[in-house]
Amino acid sequence: MKRALCFLLMTAPAAAHVMSMSTGDLTISGTRAHYELRIPLYETSHVKQPDEVLLANVKFDGARLVSKTCRPDASSDSYVCTADYTFRAPVEELRVECTLARVTVPNHVHLLHATLNGRREEAVFDNTFTETTLRFRGPGAAQPAVTEAMAGLLRALRGPVQLLFLIALALAANSRRELTQMTASFFVGQCAAVALLPWSGWQPAPRFVEAAAALSIAYLAVEILLLPKSGAPWLMVGALGTIHGAWLWLFIENTRYHATLVLTGAIIGEVAALAVMGWAAARLSSTRAVMVLSSVLLAFGLAWFGMSLR
Fold first, then answer.
1. pLDDT higher than threshold 70 for residue 13
2. Domains in the chain, ordered, with CATH?
3. Tell me, what's the pLDDT at 138?
């Protein structure tokens, strides 16, 4: 009980935003390279001298900076930095170091797209993965598929809101059968959001999705505290799944990854996490323990919702 409570409390300050993401496009031609970094404006509000700090935390081995510019782009609500580099010799493979998570927020993710003579490489950086080598080889069909599915798995489980929602889902189920129904409904909601949002013409703002995801935790906590025997809870869980599906869709839009692969990875990760959480929830012998945990989840959801609106 105490360990579970400590876990819930420690995850609250783990990151400043559910969605903290930037993108980079690197184009290499011979001994020259052009790089463009885009990051949401609100992610730079607490970064001192972003025109110096941001590019200093994205390093290309052997590259010499020739020129750079950084400016806010009001049309896309982004802060944009562009830079030109030269290399001593034509690039065949390139080592990249990205430490943007150290100067933005701990859960920041940088998505790098790199092109060399028509060959494309991609990399995903966060606070645990800061270095990689881009080899620009023609990968087999399995390599990009595994990369994109793994990215979906990590995005589904890395954020505190995602993990705490799954904990709330496991606690809300009164039986293994009900957990299976609720999980299936959640997946249907996720998939529906990813499939339908591109056709809707509506692109939800990251702040809106963040706030809605926080409220989804609070809603499940209220269900556990006040309506533990409510009928057909899987219906509402399906609706909540669309919120988390919207978050995955924003990730897909930024990465340009295949939706099917990202969803597959996300669902695999969520199934594994829910299996463990469901097993642990079933062994909570004390109703009081469930009530305390649910109260913490409710407080977290409401607090995070408030933070998202600031």
1. no
2. 21-138 (2.60.40), 156-309 (no CATH)
3. 59
How far apart, in whole angstroms, are the C-alpha atoms of residue 255 and residue 180?
31
Q: Give yes or no for residue 18 having a pLDDT over 60.
A: no
